[in-house]
Amino acid sequence: MKRSEINRLLAQAVEFLKECRFALPPFASWTPDDWTHKGPECEEIRRNMLGWDVTDFGLGRYAQDGLLLFTLRNGNVNNPEDHKTYCEKIIICQAGQRCPLHFHWNKIEDIIARAGADVAMRLYNSGRDEAPDRRSPVRVSTDGVATQLAAGGKLVLSAGRSITLTPGLYHEFWAEGGPCLIGEVSAVNDDTADNRFADEIGRFPKIEEDEQPLYYLCNEYPPAG
Question: Is-above-0.85 flag for pTM?
Answer without folding.
Answer: yes
